[in-house]
UniProtKB/TrEMBL annotation:
InterPro entries listed in its UniProt record: 4_helix_cytokine-like_core, IL-15/IL-21_fam
Localization (cell): Secreted
Signal sequence, start to end: 1-19
Lineage, broadest ranks: Eukaryota, Metazoa, Chordata, Craniata, Vertebrata
The name this protein goes by in its record: Interleukin-21
Protein source organism: Salmo trutta (Brown trout)
GO cellular component: extracellular space
Keyword set includes Signal: yes
Family: Belongs to the IL-15/IL-21 family.
Role this protein plays: Cytokine with immunoregulatory activity. May promote the transition between innate and adaptive immunity. Induces the production of IgG(1) and IgG(3) in B-cells. Implicated in the generation and maintenance of T follicular helper (Tfh) cells and the formation of germinal-centers. Together with IL6, control the early generation of Tfh cells and are critical for an effective antibody response to acute viral infection. May play a role in proliferation and maturation of natural killer (NK) cells in synergy with IL15.
Length: 141
């Protein structure tokens, strides 16, 4: 009997955790779609932006995300509404579960500053942000 309860609990847990991940993956897929849509409307006219590399150190994922988020408003587009939507969705909430660091661990970690990343043109920037989103999907825990 005890064993059965244990099994049921384990299964329930497993199913719930997966449902969580399905939801997160869907959210990330949505942001990815919005980003591609936004990209189509961007005038890639040589605007240069600090572009984080993706060899992200332990517990620095959100810091890297913050840097991308800070740069998106500089993309030249007439689709302001879509731009705002993308910015809003690049929130830590969208990326829950991408790393397993605690708040404390994050606070104690010194991550690379946004200004120290190389300047890339807007086309490369969007490309890199797309890669970040794809990476986030594979790293869901
Ligand atoms: C963004 O759009 C440009 C053309 O405007 C295209 O060359 C590039 O591949 C697009 N990038 C992504 C990530 O979709």
């Amino acid at each position: 009997m005890k064993l059965l309860v244990c099994c049921l609990l384990a299964i329930t847990c497993c199913v719930l955790a997966n449902a969580d991940n399905v939801e997160r993956t869907m959210k990330l897929t949505e942001v990815l779609k919005e980003l591609r849509q936004l990209n189509k409307s961007v005038e890639h006219n040589g605007v240069m932006l600090n572009t984080p590399t993706l060899d992200i150190e332990e517990c620095c994922f959100l810091s890297t995300l913050e840097c991308f988020k800070k740069m998106v408003p500089h993309l030249k587009t007439k689709q302001k509404k879509l731009q705002r939507k993308v910015i809003r969705n690049l929130s830590p909430l969208t990326f829950t579960g991408v790393d397993s660091c605690s708040r404390e661990e994050r606070e104690n970690k010194v991550c690379q500053g946004c200004d120290s990343y190389p300047m890339k043109d807007s086309r490369e920037f969007v490309q890199q942000l797309e890669s970040l989103l794809q990476k986030a999907m594979t790293r869901l825990v």
